[in-house]
Amino acid sequence: MAYKYFIDAHCHVLELSHPNFLDFVEGLRHRGLEALYQGLSAPNFMLTSFFSKGGERLRNLLAVMERQAGEIFELMEDDLLGKFSQDDEAEALYSGGSLKIGGLRFDRVLVVPLVMDFAEPPRADPGLWYDRQPPKDILRQVRDLLEGIAHYRRTRPEGLLAIRPFIGINTARHDRAALESLLIAAFEGYRKGFGAALEAFDGMGVWDGSWKANAFAGVKLYPPLGFDPFPVEGEEREKTDFLFSFCEERGIPIVTHCDDMGFRSLSLEESWRNTSPERWRPRLEANPSLRIDFAHFGMQYSLRFGQGARHEWTEAIIELMVEYPGVYADVAFNGCDPSYYDHLISLMEREEKRSGAMLAERLLFGSDFAMNLLRISSWSEYLGIFSKSRLPDSIKEGMGFVNPARFLFGE
Q1: How far apart are alpha carbons 65 and 55 in whole angstroms?
Q2: pLDDT in tens, 93-130
Q3: At what angle do helices 194-202 and 138-155 cross, to 10 degrees?
Q4: Domain 2-409 top-level CATH class
Q5: Is the pTM above the cut of 0.85?
Q6: What ranges do the domains of the chain cover?
């Protein structure tokens, strides 16, 4: 069966200037033992990513991030068309006028780049000559991304990609007035529905430098950078209450980071506390109609020494799904390992006995491109692993089209 769009509900289009690398290095300086623990206790994740084959994976990631956003979109399309393949006989994922995923066919790919709010409070470091914290203004990253979408629309008007970004917000880094201004600017013209989304994307071919109406599909939250979904009473609680009420009332979807790795500025303990799905339970009790995707399906890579893999966060997300119909999860980055999909099949078979098709109807495909280049060679390789997995085509259809369309657009 042919479908119009395959949806990658979780990817990143980051230019090298966007992340706050200085803050990351500061964390390593002051919490080096934590970083070492994470690297050693997460097999085949961090240390091998940087040092295998002379740093090939890191260099491959930089080959993407050294580009501007518009060039990254062009690179993604060219990857689907097989223009980077080193096997002349290998068939491109997109060939014969369609993207082939398992036994399914799709005309185009809708990608959802998630903007991350790397802003940090101004501070001085007396140990540096240039002792002023570099600004990481979310508005600058938004400008770069919207300019990149416009570039792609102009250079490839018949391109294979449709693009619907999420804006990153960290309430801890904005006062109430700035938060309200940011949300209103991003969602003043927000309209639900697939048609409205594509209309907004098509209109990006002509971009005058201002925020376009309906340019954003949702909000991206990232607890390891300081976001707490349910702070203690006070100003921080008031700001998060405003954010979630704003999204709940308008039906704006939310993606929150939910694995125990990633870019962080907090201590390991604080990061895991804010990221844990259990931290979200009081928030969902307060805002039960939220539509929220727990990214990475709660993967926990850091092992307790002497014990096996941990799945507490995944199990907690499933419990939240049972209680709240707006709770979803994506498998971004997880699918770098082909065996992950066998685990997912077992999980769905187990849950089917308890809650029917609920889990299968709440899972979303996500790649985590370009961060997944720390584990694999390309976006197309990640898509290919999903395509070749033992997941039935009915599940691939659900994860790649039906579920993300419901989550993103309410239909």
Answers
A1: 15
A2: 999 999 999 999 999 999 999 999 988 766 667 778 88
A3: 80
A4: alpha beta
A5: yes
A6: 2-409
